[in-house]
Fold this protein.
Amino acid sequence: MSELSEHLHEEAWKRSSEISNDTRHQLFMQAADRIEALEAENAELQRCFDLQWAAQQRAIKRWQEATGRDMAWPDHAELILWMLEQIDAADKEGMTDEVQK
């Protein structure tokens, strides 16, 4: 711990003894509410990440099958370009619904 951190920690400790029990309880409840809100936000962000990850894995699998490069992963731009090319090709053949599945 740095000297500044130690100093701040000591000051916070000294001042905490000056805080009334009611104020300490209010601060605790505010902190608990904030933690609960952050945990809910984190859970939502994790759900979004998981959905995006699963979709990307499906696209990578299709790319690997189409290119025969099953031990490689395309970078994001390469994958998007490949998917757009697949959609264009399917449009020309009237198979857009099949590609979008």
Summary: The chain has one domain: 3-100.
